[in-house]
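TICKET #2291
ISSUE: user wants both folds in one file
ATTACHMENT 1:
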Amino acid sequence: MSYAQVTDIQARFPNRDLVQLSNEDPTVTIVNTTFIQTALDDASSEIDTYLEARFALPLTDPPVTLVRICCDITMYRMQAMRPLHDVAEARKRYDDVIATLQRVAAGQLTLGLSADGLEPPDPTNPAVAVVQAGGDPSATPPTRVFSRGNLKGF
C-alpha cells in the first residue's frame, strides 16, 4: 500500500521538476505517472521498515504526516538519480523525515496510532482505565553505579 499518490506529490512540488525527474527524454512535457507511482510505492516500503516494529501493517487509515514523508523520500530518490540536479535540499528533507521515522520507531514520537494500528484510547472514556507504570513517581531514583567520574582512568 502506498502512503501517497501521484496527485499528492504534484500538489507539493512544481510540475516542471516532476516532468524532468520522471522522464529520460528532455523533450517530454508531461509527468510520467507510472514512474512516479513506482517511486512512491518504494518510499512507502521504506517507511514500513520503520513502522513495522510498532504498528500492525498495513495501516488502514494512515495519518497525513506519512503522505508528506512519502513525497519527500520520493523526491529525494528521484533527484538523486539525476546528477544535473542539486540534491542538497532534497537530501536535507530526506534526512529530516528519516530522523522522524526513527523517532517513531523508537517510541519517542507518535503518529496518533496505537501499536496495533488502531486509534489510541480516549482517557476521558469511562470504559478506559489509565494505569501509570513504573512505581511511585514521587520516589527518588537509585544513584548511578557507573559514571564518568568513577570510571575515570579505566
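ATTACHMENT 2:
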Amino acid sequence: MRRTKIKIKMSDKLEDYELKKLNELNNKIGAFRHDIAIVEIQKSELLGLHGEAFKQFKVFRDELNSKYGLIEVDLKTGKITEKKEDGKEKTS
C-alpha cells in the first residue's frame, strides 16, 4: 500500500503521541549507547587485568622451569612431566 505524502507547512508539528513515541525511542537508543560504553570500558579493564595475570603466569612458569627444567604440570595433581626438546614428554 502506498502512502500519500502530506504537504508540510512550517507551522505543522507532530501529533503528541508521535512526539512522545519518538522521544521514548530516542531515549532508549541513548540508554543502550550508554550501557554499551560502560560494557566497553569494563571490557578494556578486564583485558588489561587479563594481560597482567598472563604476564605473572609467564614469569612464574619461567621460575618453575628454572627450578625443575622444561616441564608440564598436571594442575589437578601437581605431577610434573619433563618435556624433551623435541616436544615429547618423559615422566619424572
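RESOLUTION: both attachments delivered.
EXTRA DETAIL ON ATTACHMENT 2: The first helix runs from residue 16 to 68.
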